[in-house]
Known about the structure:
By secondary structure, the protein is mainly beta. It has one helix at residues 2-21; strands at residues 40-41, 47-48, 64-74, 79-88, 99-112, 115-122, 130-133.
Amino acid sequence: MRRNSFRILVVAAFAAVVALFGTAGPASAAPAPTPVVTVVGGCDGSKQVQPRTLSSIFCADAGIIVKDIRWLAWTDAFAVGYGTEHRNLCIPNCAAGKYAVYPVGVYLFAPKKGAFTQVSLYSSVVKPPETYQLTGFVR
């Protein structure tokens, strides 16, 4: 039940983003330009499109990783999806810390030079939503 309400929340958030940014295409019948796909930089320098795992939130220590991501939209301006967050609680310390695991909504935005630079994570566990600078880089 909780997972279904979370998916409804993610879909509603996606609808709000689409309403805000719009989805209208060009009005003319001119040939479409070669599509440019905005990517996420991986910790290894790879260019990732719709990755199932997002580990570039904190490349140095893997403190937060989102796995099993299902993308609802991926555009040049933003991407919206949901997955499972694995957050290191650093108790008793970060090296030996246990991970909390829970569903999370993912919103990538602020593209620069063809790569998303920020991510917001939405969950019913951590409030308000948290926004992070992506630390992965693109080669």
